[in-house]
Amino acid sequence: MRLYRISEKQFAADLTGEGARIAGGRWNPKGVPMMYTAESVALAALEVLVRISTRKHYYRTIFTIPDTASIECVAVTDLPANWQIPCPNRYLIDFGKRWVLERRSLLLKVPSAVVNGDGYNFLINPLHPEFSAVSVLDIAPFIYDSRLVSES
User: Is 147 exposed, middle or buried (0-12, 13-18, 19+ CB in 10 A)?
Assistant: First the structure.
């Protein structure tokens, strides 16, 4: 399986989940490491695009994960009605925290809020025993089309 992430250059090869640990996110509280990836480069790009206001130098990372990796799936129907709201959602954060700390699977397949649940992101648990099987296949510059991102 290949998963994708768009990030700034200094984080392109990072496999620690440190950024999410420091900042927290939709699926984890501050203090809990997690890697956010997507099923396609396009979705990874959109996931970053909704949060940026100025152009930066980004990189696309392709991760490889064995097809035998453990995966837990979350369906849209399993989520509360307000799961897509951009502000912190206690249900999602608590769910993600439990998933990481209980080490239930290497991957958590979750619907993307950016595309209304019509695509999937994959959270990678750096604390899971299978994590050593995650590897970086390729890193390359990723440039957003200037029509999508402000120059300011």
Answer: exposed
Rg (CA), the chain: 15
Name the helix (H) or strand (E) containing 73. strand 71-73
The domain limits of the chain are 2-142
CA atoms in the 13 A half-sphere facing the CB of 69: 29
Residue that is written with structure tokens 């300011």 in the block: 152
Residue 128 CA to residue 106 CA, distance in Å, equals 6
For residue range 50-107, list pLDDT tens digits in order.
877 666 789 999 999 999 999 999 999 999 998 988 878 999 999 999 999 999 999 9
